[in-house]
Specification:
By secondary structure, the chain is mainly β. The protein has no helices and eleven strands.
């Protein structure tokens, strides 16, 4: 994913709603947007299959570096992974899972590696 364009602002690279994502990269990856652009690499929340509320699962198999440029403020921050327990389109909540058995998150320059929001 390329967030380097000057117009890449308020974007989400990967969006999950009750889905699974597996990191298939063969090596470390660095997410380095400017704080002022408020980009998120991965956003996960609950989803519903028509009957059951489902949490999202992200599996990280390598080192994921969050190394933003610019200055972080209270309203401008680069976020690596954002997990929201709300189920899309409903008033219910579920647990999401981040599997880092074979991976890790490294954060520099006041970025946020993993942000979890509970109702």
């Amino acid at each position: 994913m390329d967030f380097s364009s000057g117009t890449a602002k308020n974007n989400i690279g990967v969006y999950l709603a009750g889905a699974k994502w597996v990191d298939s990269r063969s090596g470390a990856y660095t997410f380095s947007p400017d704080h002022a652009r408020n980009n998120i690499y991965l956003f996960a929340q609950g989803g519903n299959d028509g009957t059951t509320d489902l949490g999202s699962t992200a599996t990280l198999n390598n080192e994921f570096k969050v190394n933003p440029s610019g200055s972080a403020t209270s309203t401008a921050k680069a976020i690596g992974m954002y997990f929201d327990t709300a189920v899309k389109g409903k008033t219910t909540f579920v647990d999401n899972t981040l599997d880092m058995t074979n991976g890790k998150v490294v954060v520099t320059n006041k970025g946020i590696g993993i942000y979890a929001k509970e109702w």
